[in-house]
Amino acid sequence: MPFPEQDWKYLSRLKPLALERLCQRILVEAQDMIAAATEGEHHRAYLALYRHIRDRDRLIADCFDDWSRSRALTHLALWRQHHLITDEEFAAFQPETRAAIEWLVAQIA
Question: What is the DSSP secondary structure assignment for residue 40, as one 8-state letter?
């Protein structure tokens, strides 16, 4: 299914907002991990934080790298799966696009 031009433009406008939301979530998770570190366990906490950042860096790459219209469905499905756009934002896409994304997200889950 070719990604509609109107949806591509809208997706591109949402990109900075979705990236900001994901980065904010990652930072909150990291803050929680740091706050939970206890005396004598700082190295273990550091290693957990390092793994967290490494794993989330992969998620950022999956959701935002290789930005092209041919990968738009993949990006949007990942955004939807990871709650990076609101239901209201998602509703603004064409019905065909929404149906394709709902199907893809069901396959991912």
Answer: T
Q: What is the DSSP string of 55-101?
A: HHHHHHHHHHSS--GGGHHHHHHHHHHTT-S-HHHHHTS-HHHHHHH
- Cα–Cα distance measured from residue 28 to residue 12, given in angstroms and rounded to the nearest whole number: 25
8-43 pLDDT tens trace = 999 999 999 999 999 999 999 999 999 988 888 899
Token pair listed for 38? 């206890």
Other C-beta atoms within 10 Å of 33: how many? 16
C-alpha 31/C-alpha 33 separation (Å) is: 5
Q: What is the pTM of this model?
A: 0.90
Say if residues 79 and 85 touch (Cβ distance below 8 Å). yes
